[in-house]
Sequence to fold (834 residues):
Amino acid sequence: MSEETVTSRRKVLGWTGAGVVVAATAAGGAVAAVRSGDDVQPAGAAGAAVAFHGANQAGITTPVQDRLHFASFDVKTEDREELVALLKEWTDAARKMTQGRPVGEGAVGGLAEAPPDDTGEALGLPSSRLTLTIGFGPSLFTTKDGGDRFGLKAHRPEALVDLPKFPGDALDPNRSGGDLCIQACADDPQVAVHAIRNLARIGFGKVAMRWSQLGFGKTSSTTPEEQTPRNLMGFKDGTHNVAGSDRAAQDKHVWVSAKDGPSWMAGGSYLVARRIRMHIETWDRTPLREQEEIFGRTKGEGAPIGRQREHDAPDFKAMLPDAHVRLAHPDNSGVTILRRGYSFTDGTDGLGRLDAGLFFIAYQRDVRDGFVPLQMRLAKLDSLNEYIQHVGSAVYAVPPGVRDEDDWWGRELFQNH
Amino acid sequence: MSEETVTSRRKVLGWTGAGVVVAATAAGGAVAAVRSGDDVQPAGAAGAAVAFHGANQAGITTPVQDRLHFASFDVKTEDREELVALLKEWTDAARKMTQGRPVGEGAVGGLAEAPPDDTGEALGLPSSRLTLTIGFGPSLFTTKDGGDRFGLKAHRPEALVDLPKFPGDALDPNRSGGDLCIQACADDPQVAVHAIRNLARIGFGKVAMRWSQLGFGKTSSTTPEEQTPRNLMGFKDGTHNVAGSDRAAQDKHVWVSAKDGPSWMAGGSYLVARRIRMHIETWDRTPLREQEEIFGRTKGEGAPIGRQREHDAPDFKAMLPDAHVRLAHPDNSGVTILRRGYSFTDGTDGLGRLDAGLFFIAYQRDVRDGFVPLQMRLAKLDSLNEYIQHVGSAVYAVPPGVRDEDDWWGRELFQNH
Ligand code: HEM
Ligand code: HEM
Fold:
């Protein structure tokens, strides 16, 4: 097809090249750019897209966005170079999308005779504080029979353990595991869904989506100065968490340090994801007092039992011994993790009940000192267990951030080994 | 338990009775009230909750909210009086929730020894323009073998037909039908999910949820002056629709008139819901030009082929004969419906593909002159069919609005017959 044909086709199709003009005063005050057919338009003083480049990946200590689309992929190609090429292509697309730009030449910027580079449903939408965070699962490093898929076996971090079976686990293999994950968080779900879908599309033939999870409401906070969101049990969730501003706590509990090893993980973290179903109907028939005793916090204010305000220091002696907060608090468990979960509702379960609950996400410096001992304790003792069931599970090594335009996801892992 | 015990318990639990104070400057500028433990707090000049009382139900011509939670219920009780009591209770709860108030005494306002009246996850959230719209399915009036369940058989509207089988239909019975439906629309999905869940809870034992659908992004508009949203195929959707301000078109095409009959439906409408799966992976490999020819509109601007701007009048001769818009346009189909659909993404389908598409919702004065002939035409001819499949289906009679504090959903149907 000649250039001329394309041009005249554009004319026929009524293309004006005018792009898309949008009122960009969006909610949340965090908008830097608006996708358009041709390019990005500054959105005035409304706020900023979340930076993609940095020593750590965004989406971990970033102030928690409202919505989530989380996807787990299996790698289908057996060719290491093809996988590396995909990671580079993904990085490039993520760099653009997080800044409110379309993939490649966009949804309408390319040739009329070719499929568009971008699927287009985020055209005209602001960046919505989109972050894209990648993780590498244990199965990327080691096959089930101990084999080496991509020459990475020797570089699997010790901290990236296969999670043990916890008491009460009822895991669905179709909602568990995966070689790679992408966590997409944004204030607009359309932007998060668009990002995952475009990455899946770029990966077509090389990776296949294993499972994905939409989270419609955040259940955590890294900004204690803001209103704490509520989970589907009606309680404030995220009150006591690692704050985005607390770099000291992050260095201690979230970020892998250079001396932790392996070196390619310095500045990275470990992600545990658990799909936790809530027995909502049973919970809803539980007296208020019992609900509060189960968590060790009041429902309205979210104050520790026996205290007045949400952020008052807890009085553990006023709580029942098997209260969730008492068991989970660092003073008692010895564990600090950064929680970043979302509520989900995925239709009904065939028994007339909502399939709803918490898609739990935690970041930590070492899974062995983080989620594993804490969940072992909770799975054994927590009075909340009567009302929940863990039905999906995954763990990933989250590499450090992409430094600059030339860097790409996983470079430290693949380039040096 | 004595009043005293409750009071002292409250003290132990740290209740201050201070309620929840929230910054109520929310997105969309449409917020009247903020749920709190005790009562409702005015949210200043930020906007208004959508009125619940009126001649027609809200949620039809109401400016389309961002998110959807749609639930279909089977009635389990065989007792008509119990069903009527439920409808009254539901109305009362809907009246409160749509105005930003909790159900009953709220999540923390009741007795500590009793389950709270409200599940609490919307505590502190503004009304978010929540609308709750009820519909009655054919099976409420007539059983499969032609029986009469609740003495309503004679009052089934002729316009509430069982939908015929359309070419290409691949309907899942578990995502189709239902005796009752509730459409919950709100700008915050947490508010929509909260509303459905609390209605389900109130109905426990009398109704059971048959299926439910979350819609994360609107794909229609009743406000042509605002930015048109995009569907998951990347096209603007809702450009040419019945406008919320066009009362004449609504009276002609959406609202049942007194002389249409039956009398209990005057001021009501008929709702068709279709879960339409998109073959996203195939679509994403289709050239831009072909995509535009399929719809008969450009992707960037959304202009009719051969025209310049989105709202320019279409030139059907410039479109292919099987273009979606050409086939569906009232000038050519003779049909006008009000579309109010949402995009969905429900994880993956077991084949590595997103289970995603359009949850199509249409309102019309008579299904026989609305969805049925139009979909018959589209199912036969539409070039879009290669990329979509209808997998769920339901139809409901949507009664008129609740007039005042004493009125309730379905009163005209149940009280007069
Ligand atoms: C559906 C399941 C769960 C629900 C509904 C839930 C809910 C809550 C709530 C309401 C709080 C109190 C507010 C706050 O400080 O954020 C809390 C605290 C906490 N939860 Fe959970 N949680 C769940 C599962 C888990 C799991 C699986 C873990 C880790 C293995 C966990 C770890 C924690 C920690 C560390 C705290 C903070 C305790 C403190 O420092 O005071 N939670 N959770
Ligand atoms: C996944 C399936 C569908 C997709 C992606 C889709 C998409 C679109 C798009 C992009 C437009 C043009 C913009 C606009 O005017 O809103 C449109 C118009 C329209 N569609 Fe669909 N549609 C779908 C299914 C249906 C169905 C099932 C019906 C009815 C049976 C329908 C009826 C209409 C009507 C009436 C118009 C307006 C035509 C006009 O007056 O110009 N659509 N649709």
About this structure: Residues 3-415 of chain A form one domain. Chain A touches chain B through 91 residues (CB under 8 Å). The pocket of protoporphyrin IX containing FE (ligand 2) is lined by residues B 231, 233, 235-241, 274, 276, 278, 295, 297, 324-325, 328-330, 337, 357-358, 360, 371, 374-375, 378, 388 (CB under 6 Å). The mean pLDDT of chain A is 89.
